[in-house]
Structure formats: C-alpha cells, structure tokens
Amino acid sequence: MTAQRQASSASQIPHLSPAELSYLYTSLSLPGTPIRPDGRSPTQFRPLSAETDILPGTNGSARVGFADGTQAIVGVKAEVERTVLGVQALSQAEQQEYAEGNEGADGGAGAKQGSTSGQGSWVQMCIEIPGFRDDDALPVFLSEMMREPLVESVSGGEKDGDGDEGGMVGGLKGRLVINRRWHWRLYIDVLLLSQPLSYPLPLLSLTTHLALLATKLPKLKSKGEEDPFFDDDWNAAEYLYPRVRTTRASIPGSIHKVRPPVTLLVISVAENIVFDPSREEIAVADTVLAISITYDTGSNCLKLLSIRTVDPPSRLTQPSVPNSENVATLGSTAAAEASAIINPSTGEEEVSGVWRPRRGGVKRATIARMVKMVLEKGGVGEEVLDGLEGVEVG
Amino acid sequence: MKSLRRDFSSDPSTANVTSKVFVRSTKSGKVQKIVRELYLRQDIPCSSRLCTICPTVAPKDANGNISPFVLSEVPAGTTAYPRGHYIIPDTNALLNGMDLFEHTGAFYDVIILQTVLEELKNQSLPLYNRLLALIKTDEKRFYLFFNEFRLETHVRRGQDESINDRNDRAVRTVAKWYMDHLCAVTKKGKKEKAIPAIVVITDDKENLRKAKEENVTALSLENYVSGLEESDKLLDMINESREAREAKEARGELFYPEYYSMSKMMTGLRAGNLHQGVFNVSPYNYLEGSIKVSAFDKPLIIMGRHNSNRAISGDSVVIEVLPKDQWKSPSTKIVEEEVVTKNDNPDAEDNEAVVTERERKALQDEVRQAHGKNLEGRPQPTAKVVGVVKRNWRQYVGTVDSSSAGSQTTGRRQQNVFVLPMDKKVPKIRVRTRQAADLLGQRILVTIDAWNRDSRYPTGHFIRSLGELETKEAETEALLLEWDVQYKPFPKSVLDCLPSEGHDWRVPESKDNIGWNGRRDLRDLLICSIDPPGCQDIDDALHARQLPNGNFEVGVHIADVSHFVKPNNAMDLEASVRGTTVYLVDKRIDMLPHLLGTDLCSLKPYVERYAFSVLWEMTPNAEVVSADFTKSVIRSREAFSYEQAQLRIDDPSKTDDLTQSMRTLLNFSKILRQKRMDAGALNLASPEVRIEADNDEVGDPLADVKTKAMLATNSLVEEFMLHANITVASKIYSTFPQTAMLRRHATPPPQNFEDLINQLTKKRNMRLDVSSSGALADSLDRCIDTGNPFFNTLVRILATRCMTSAEYFSAGAHAESEFRHYGLASPIYTHFTSPIRRYADLLVHRQLASAINYEGEDGRATIEGSITRNRLEDICRNINYRHRNAQYAGRASIEYYVGQALKARGEKLAADGVDSGIEEDAYIMRVFENGVVVFVPRFGIEGVVRLEDFVLPGDSASRSVEERRELVPRRESDFDPEEYTLKVTEKGQEQSERAMLVELFQRVKVNVSSVKEESGRGVGKRRVRILILKGRK
C-alpha cells in the first residue's frame, strides 16, 4: 500500500476501468473543443470560495474551498531570528558597528548594501495531507515545488523605475531582512482538510498565495543596525507584500504591487490543453505540468518562474487489451476496429477505444502553447491572479 | 473564477465575544502576535449607591455577598454642579494631576476606567501604584470600573483609529452610559434632580470637542480645578511638564543632548558598548556622579551636568564610556550647588547655558588636577549618560529658595521659584506656584515632573506644606518622607488581625488548650532579658543552667511573633512593606501594631509569654554538643538594662541562681567572642551616639547626647544572638535549600580599600592587609596612634565605609560559597532574634517552625515557612531597602537632634551674651582643595569646614556667619593631594603665623554651633557650623 502511495505522485488513481479511461481520453482529446466530464471549458476553473485572516493567532492566513469539497487552510507565522554571518562578514559588521557607535549615526548606505540579500532557508513550508506522513514523497515534493518559486522569485527588482514605494527589493528573501544581524523567519503551514480528491497543488498554491497576501509583520521601530524593536500595536503592522493605492477602478482600496507566485496545474490531452484538471482528467493526461507564475512589476505583465513536470498517473493504469489480442474475442472482431491510429501527441500507435497507459513525453510545441496560454495578456494566469486580488484581504 | 467570503455579522454569538490583538516582544527577542479573547458581560455594576438594578445583578462571592458599592448617593457638588457629580478622568488627567486626586480636599467619587488604569500602567508604574492605593482606600470613593468587559461600554477599535482616539472614545462611551444608566435606574422613587452629573476630565482638545458634540460634560483639569475652593493651592499641584512643553516648544533652545532611542540602547547594552547602572551623585560635589556597572571593578565617573545629562541621583541610566583623553580624576573639591548657582533666576531661561561660567571654572580646576601624577590624581575612566532606563524620582522635601522668589511676592501671581531639596544630591527644582509668599520658611513637599532638554533644571510642582521650618512635626515628617518610611497609622484592616482579647490576652492555663500544641513548658527556667534602658519591645531573653552531666544548657528565647502574625493577612502584608521598625530620637515607627510589639509578643518579665527557643548543650569550654529548637512558653524573671545587669554580675554579694546563670552566660559569651575573633571576625565601628531624651527641660540639652558605651553585658547578649542566628541559619538552609531567608555580607573587593591604604601608608606608615577579614581585623588592631586614642576608631569607621553593606537574600540566589558573612566571619548567617522589629526574622521564624515540623494551633504552621523564591526575592529587595533607609533615618534624626540641642544651648547662652558655640575635639576624615571634612566624636556628626571657617591665628572665633562669609574672597589654600595636607592662608599674607596647616587624621579643636542663615540664599536655614580653631602649625 505504502509503496503504491509513494509511487502515485500525482494522486490516487481513480478506480476507472480501462474502457472508462479510454472514453474519457477520447472526449478530452476531441480536436478544438474537448468535452470535460463536468462540462467546463478547457480554461475554466472550478468555482471556489476563499477567505483570509481566519486564524487570529497567525500573522496571516487563508482558507480556500473548491466546489468538490476539497479545502485547505494556510497559516503564516513569522519569527525574529539572528542572522548567522560568516566569520569575516561578522568582524566586518562589528567594525562598522563600532564606527557607527562612535559617530552616533544610524545605518548608512554601506549597511544597506549588505542587508538586501536574504536566504531561501528563511522560509519554511510544511504541508499536511490526511493519510500522509510529513516525510512522504507527496507532501515533501509539493512543498518544495511551492517554496522554490516563492523564494526564488525576485520581482520588482532594483531597476524598478516607480520608486521604492510598494516595491520589494530582493523579493521575499529581501523583505525578510531586518538588518545585517536580524531577519524574519517565515513558517508557512499548509493544511489540506479533505482527502486529496484531485492533485492538490492548485488548491494549496492558491491558498498559500492568499495567506501570504494577508500576512502582516509588526512594524519596526528601531533603525539601522540596532536590535529590532517593534511597535506593539498590531493595527500598525505592515503587509509582508507591500500594498499601494490602486489606480485601477475595477478593484477598490489598495492592491499589491508585488505578489507571491501562484502555481497552476495544466494538463495536455492529445492536442488539447486543459486547466484545473479534476482527478479523472489527470488520470488520462499525457502530461501534467506545474507552472509557477507571478507578476513582473517592471513590465507589468506575467512572468514565468518555473515549470515542473508531474508524473502523469496514467502510466500506472492497467492497459486494456485490444480485441485483436484478446484470446476470448480472438477472431471475432471487425477489421475496422483493428486499424491503428497514431497518437498525435506521443506518436504511439493506438487502437481506438482501447486504453493504453501514457508513457509520458510531450512535444515542445505543446509546452510552448501551455506556457503561452498562461502568460498571455488576458490569459488564464491573469484571470487567476485578478480573481485572487478580488478576495478581500484584511 | 468566483470567490466568496463568509459573513460574520450573521453569527449571533459574536456580539459578546471580541478579541484584543497586540504584539508582544519578549526579552529573548521573540516577537509574537497575541490574541486574547474577550467575553463581554452585563453584570459589572456601576457601583453607584443610587442604582437600584446593579445590586441585583452584580456578581456574588462565595458567601453570596456583592462587593459594597463605592460611589456616594450624594456626591459632593461644586458651584457648577450643584447636584453633585462623579468624575471620570482620562489617563493624562491622572498623569498630570495625581497629587490632586490624592488631595483630601477635593476629588471624591471618581470612576477609574480599566482602560485608563492600563494606559497609566504603561506610562508610569509609580503613578499606577499610587492610583491602586487610592482605589483601595475607602474614604476617597474611587471605583475601578471594568469598562472593557462590559458589553455596553466596550469599544471596538475602528479601522484607522489610533489607540489614543479609541481610548478617548471609550471614556466618552462610559460617561454616556453612566448618564443613561443612572437616569434609567433612579427614575423610580428618586427625584430626577438627585442624579449626579458625570464629568469627564481630559486635557485633550480633540476629546473635549468630540465630548461637546456627543453631549458629554468634559472639562480640562485646569478648568475643573479653577471651579473648586482653594483653587490656587490646587492649581499648583498640577504637573508642570505639560504646560512647560507647550510654552516652550517654539523656542527650542536645547541644553542637553538627546537620549538614545530605546532600541539603540538595548543594542548597545547587548553588544557591551553601553552599560547600565544606577546613577549616584557625590555627596561633596553635586557636579560629579559615579556609576557602578558590572563590566568594571571600579565605578565610572560622570563629570559635569552635560555628561550626567538630566539624570538624577538614583535613576537607572545607560552610559557610554568617554574616550581616554576625557578621563579625569575624581574631584578634590567641595562643590555645593547652593554656593555655585546662587544667583540663578528661575524665570530667565534665555541666556542660561548648561554649564555656567562658575561651574566651568570649578570643572577646570578638576581637569588641571587630573594631570597630577600621584595615585589619587590619576585620571580615571569617565562616562556620559546616553539614556534613562528607569527614573527613580520620588517626592522631595525641600525649601523655597527665598532669593529666587523675587521681591514681588505679594498677590496671587503665578511665578517660578526654585526649591532646594534637603537631599544635596538632587538638583534644585523649578516650581511654578501662586503661593510663593506663603511657602517661604516652610518645609514643603514637591515632586519632579520632567526634565526636558531645553531646561537647565528639572521642573516640578508643589504638593503640600509640612509646616514651619524647624518645628519638630515638620522636620520629623520631612525626615520620614525623605527616607521613605511608612509612618501612617495602621489601617483598620491591619488592626482587625490582632487578637480580640487585646491587652487581656494570656497564655492559656490549661495545657490541653490548642495553644500548647507542640510547645515545651519552660516556665520554670530562670530566664531574664537584657536590653537598652527603657526598651519596651523585648525580643529576646536568655538562660543558662548546669546539667547533671557537667555540661551546660544555654537557651535563647525569642518572642514568638509568628504565632500572632499569620502569613498573607493584612497585618503580615503591612509588616512586609514596612520591613523594619524605625527608631528616631523621640519616636519609634513600629513594624507591628503597638499591642503586639510592646505587649503580647514582648517578653516582659513576670508574665508568661509564647517564645521560640534555641537550646544548646555546651561543654564548659563553650563547645556546642547539641542544638535544639522548640516553640515554648516562658516566664522571664527579670528585665535588666545593660547597666543593671552589669552591676548585678559585678556585685559579689549576689549569689542567687539568676545572677549565677548570668555569670555563666557572660563567661560563655567571652569564649564565643574569642572564637569568633580568632576566626577573623571584624570589630567594626560606626559613629554612633545615643540620645537619652528623658531629661527634663533644665540643664544642658547637650548632656543627652552620649556616645554609646560598650559594656560586657552588651557583648553578652550580642554573642548569643549571633550564635542563635548562625545555628538557625544552618537549620533552615538544610530544610529550604532554595528559599531559606539568609543574610550575607559580601567580601569587599580590595580596590575599595585602595584610597584608605594609601592614606594610612602615607600619613602613618601603617599597612592595612585586606586579603581576608581576619588579616584586616589584625591589621586594624595594629592601627594605633598612642597620642590619639580615637585614631583606631576613626580608621575602623573609614574601613567600614569601604565595605559593601550586608543584605538579605534567598538561599537559591547565590552559590553556597557566596553565603559568607564577611564581617562576622561566619559561613552562613541569618536574622532570627528580633522578629518584633524586623520582618526578615519573622519569615525565618516561620521557616524554622516548618523545619522542626511544628504544627501550631491548626496544623498549618508546618507549611507557613514555604514561600516561592520570587516572592522571597521581592521581600528581600524591599527589606534591604527599608533596612538601609531606617538606618539613614535614625542617623538623620540624631543629627537633627544634635543641631536642635546646640541651638537650644545657644539660645540659653545668648541670654547671657553671645553664642560662642561649644569647643570639642574633632578629627579630619578627608581633605579637599577648598576645605576639609571633620568628624566630631562627641556628637557623632561629620561636617564640612570651608576655608572661611578656619580660624587663623589672630582671628576672632565669634564672628557671625556674615562676617565669616566676607572672608571668602580673602582666603587662599595650598592643597597637597599627595600628602593630604591643606594650608590655609590669608590672601597676600604669606607669614606663617597667619597660616594654618591641617592634614588627614589630625586631631583638631573645633567650635561647634548652630547657626541660621541670615541673608542670601536659604534664609532661615539652620545648619551646624564647625569652625576649626587650632591645628598643627
């Protein structure tokens, strides 16, 4: 059992018969207009309900529920921690400190230079999924898949011409730096409340995104290289991802100029590309991709952060046997049935109505098309991010 | 994609649940978001006696009673509110006018909001404690209303609302609720006009405006007070800092450097660049302070006003060490604020600099001194104050500087005056008052409100007058206030804890009575007590008898106070706050009520009393065979004074058993003493005199002043008490290894003795060995000047001052090796023998009772000794402080008495002719560049002798103060810091016959008299003046 669970990195394989799998595949691979089991269009997401700040004890939290009953809660906690410097850096820092003490000046420009780079290890993510241990492959793989774009995304770089307001120099890592000797450590706890009906990555990613948007850090009162000292008024706390007053009329209040990334799950079935796949859809997918994107504040368009391939679970399904090879039906089949079809995406020989597990492999053009659909203006990525922005934070 | 958000408003249970969110920074550097749930309730009473509803809903205690309602049904009215009014002050009103709220003439029926109390706690802990005390007393009718917990008055903070705005809104909400509530509940029956007004007191303009909009009566503190009687007097009591700040913001001339931010200080402290310590001002030079910080062995010096940067003696400050080129040597000059800054004008701020020309000159001399090559003049590290962690400001007793009051003292015009605090270490305080004329010549109590960067002196306000200068009442109260002695009569709650029988209480006759549980009957022992004459609170009694085996049984019996004072009742708490009984010359401020101290506990002769006995079996060589502890009943046979006991022992005709047992005790005590001395105990000395004030009016008042005579019987009692204390200390330590109440005397660091060693070597060629207490004791014994019998005592006094003071501590606070009592050369020590007058002893009694499994009347005594370490450490801190203050107060009282005796004598003699003072021997303790400090053993006083007070050959001793003052510019001095000599000459006259040379340790003839300043600053101030008549030529 464990071995099987370990192996099924995408999710449990639904108990579908080869015939059902074949039927699903056929309808999803209809050229141009795939027919999805729940009647959605290929780019349509399932309806979801979302709310933020549901856990008062955390620095930020969110809950997202999909209509199929899967729900996730994310809580973000922040803690002040001393930065461990290398020996050389330390002595240099001390020297500067001493000089500062004598001059009585606050951290100068020199201090700022050293303080902008943070470390990825300051963000810790822990995912809990019912039925899985925290060292099982799925939670570990998922958390790394989400943490990586989070800490690596450096959006709103130094070249940002709009000025510093709302910008995040050095991305999330840079935001966590308090001064040369102190930083914030971020604990992101992701909790899937329901059984993982479908591959939970999109759900967890959206929830994490919302929780991070809602996350606030206590307002720093000390200056420069002093030991950090914070305002005890929570209302004065500042957003982890700074917000600016909106200029867009569509969304009231303030918006985030810099936003955490989201990771979308996209599958390809034959020539078709399907977003937000359900469990059954994944079971027949040729490829499953996790695409992480974020807003690039510099050019105000979307930016691709990472693409990871996810093992399509279909490769573990039982193949069906064509009548031509079936001993029981040998000879009784019509010749038409036996005619082979070449799978356009994999180039494998297929027999219509006969289920063959997918062996992976995807054309570059398909991937390019997937990425384009996510990133293009007015595309799926924008739709998702705008939708999340609409969730009232605070 | 759709998103939804759950709506909370539909949930009915959210109405009375709300939460409070804040950020908490812990000491370890963690920063946490804290969420506290609040469950709002509707049964919190308004506590007005008018209310008919609240008494029915108010929460009841276990006995079904509700706490009594506080606010009067007929509150005091004013002209503006003839129907009476309840007052609701906001935080600032309390910050600025706490003295007003404590005033007995006004401010009754005050509703203190929880919001306000919490805010006050954050801003000023002392004020918070004072407010709590006010709420506790019944007579002022202060009611603490938990507005945050009551549904109707709870205020949720708005989206962009600041905390201050929210709190102001909370105050207004409560005011409105009280109005509506009182209206609603009193309508039935009572007449409408009987409803008192609700008056909010706030100084916030925005709050006043909003209150007006919302129909809430609100006044500023000043407006409210002006409507009261005696408003002039009351207005003076408003905190000055606020006004001063407003008035001066525009001017912005800053005299002092800014303090570092809290976070910067914390960073520096952690990194070790900055240090924290308590700022201490030198008693001889008000411009010089010192700070002992843990990082350095020797205290750091803080020189001058700029470096001390508004710190006042006693403040806990953060300092930064100055670069080496600014290091200086400690001053060799006596600098008194009164003299240097004589002509400051309290109104003129514009042209004043932080360091006036005169002060600069005084400092210049010191810098020059710093370049000297000798050991004393060697520059020492100096520091500057960069921030204040905790102010230790209190109320100060002082007098109005008459010269600062100006000529136009008539009328009620408000003017600035300087108040000179009694404590010379405290700078003068600028006070605004409308009653300057009335306050001249009075002892007054003032407080410091603030010390801003733009003001040279701290600003404060007048609290009350203690009475005419030099009246006994005013001076005694001044003394008690200065040393923070609790002298108010015991409140009723304390007196309620006394046994109901009062003076008729007796030891129960039947041994079956529970009072006899666990008590040994020692009534047949020949016990007696030996105390100073006239002693009423007899703590201890003794006995000795021979046992059949040839050994002796020796017993020390201590008053069983813990039988009467049970832990944690009102009496116990009061005693723990008072800590000790304070003995003044003509007054005793008791720790325990009179009934216990002088009667029920006191081991009076001829009556049976409960006691706690320590019994030893000793060999004839005073070796202890065994020790036993027991609660007992004793009957003292006689109460002796030291002299009486001595006479009786010395009288060979007395051979009765009691006298014999006293002789045995004396014999043992000598052996014990010798053993102690052999172990290295120190024989210390402090300048002590006794005042026997029982003399009648005739005769010389100075005859009452006696130096303490040391009789053998003194030492008899002392030895056994020490022995009992040590025995008990080991016993309770074995039972309570963490929480035993012990006393230690830390080994003083050798550098403390450096100066004294140098001085002795230089002047007398004597060596002081401070390597151990035994070595020190031996070398002290060798410090004898054959021509100067007092010299040895003088050295002992000086050596004592180099040591640290003994302290109480909880056993867990130090390693066992640190328990040592240096002075007594005992590895462990505690106080057990004076529970009537010391709280520590009472605790030790409880611990010992637990240690011997004494059950007491109700079986609870076994657990009475247990106490948490935190609580014990709090108690130790307090009693150490009280103990020290009690000593200072006692000394100050003697000093005052001596001054008064001199004055009385002077007046008596003045009838015959002129007051010529009294001639005495004195010894020079310290030599400065412009004067010396002498010690007069006859009166136990030390005093500064300035240059003009040296009576040079050919001078008349009987010059008046004014005449002597005129000598000031004509005197010159030649100070040799290496030889510790000072040569005083008349300017321009170098002939040696007109000069006087004095040196350290020298015996001089002085003239002591009490003089009154007749002119200039401090008119009417009386001081003891010492003139040096004869020195070595």
Brief digest:
The complex is a heterodimer of chains A (394) and B (1033). Chain A is an alpha+beta fold.
Distance between the termini of chain B: 107 Å
Largest sheet, strands/sense/barrel of chain B: 6 strands, mixed
Largest interface: A-B, 40 and 29 residues
Structural class label of chain A? alpha+beta
Name the overall outline of chain B: globular
Count of individual domains of chain A: 1
Low-confidence stretches of chain B: 348-354, 370-376, 1015-1019
Computed Rg of chain A: 25 Å
User: What is the CATH third-level topology name of chain A?
Assistant: Ribosomal Protein S5, domain 2
Question: Into which percent range does the helicity of residues of chain A fall?
Answer: 25-40%
User: How many DSSP E strands of chain B?
Assistant: 37
Approximate helicity band of chain B: 25-40%
Tally of DSSP helical segments of chain B: 29
How confident overall, as mean pLDDT of chain A? 75
Percent range for β-strand residues of chain B:
15-25%
Oligomer: heterodimer
Order of helices and strands of chain A: HHEEEHHEHHEEHEEEEEEHEEEEHH
Q: What is the rounded Rg of chain B?
A: 32 Å
The CATH class of chain A is Alpha Beta
What does the average pLDDT of chain B come to?
82
Q: How many individual helices of chain A?
A: 10
Describe this structure in words.
- The complex is a heterodimer of chains A (394) and B (1033).
- Chain A has helices at 2-7, 18-28, 87-103, 109-115, 137-152, 171-175, 201-214, 279-283, 364-375, 380-389, and strands spanning 48-52, 60-66, 71-82, 123-128, 177-179, 182-192, 216-217, 238-239, 243-245, 254-256, 262-269, 272-275, 287-296, 301-310, 340-342, 349-351.
- Chain A is an alpha+beta fold and 394 residues long.
- Chain A has a single domain (12-104, 114-320, 355-389), classed as GHMP Kinase, N-terminal domain (Ribosomal Protein S5, domain 2, 2-Layer Sandwich), CATH 3.30.230.70.
- In chain A, a hairpin with an 8-residue loop joins strand 9 (243-245) and strand 10.
- Chain A is elongated.
- The two termini of chain A are 43 Å apart.
- Mean pLDDT of chain A is 75; it is low at 1-11, 95-115, 155-166 and 334-338.
- In chain B, strand 30 (918-928) and strand 31 (931-936) form a beta hairpin.
- In chain B, helix 21 (657-678) crosses helix 22 (712-735) and helix 22 packs across helix 26.
- The radius of gyration of chain B is 32 Å and the shape is globular.
- Chain B has 29 helices and 37 strands.
- In chain B, strands 18, 19, 20, 21, 24 and 25 form a six-stranded mixed β-sheet that branches. In chain B, strands 10-9-8-11-12 form a five-stranded antiparallel β-sheet. In chain B, strands 13-14-15-17-16 form a five-stranded mixed barrel.
- At the A-B interface, strand 1, strand 3, helix 3 and helix 10 of A face strand 1, strand 2 and helix 10 of B.
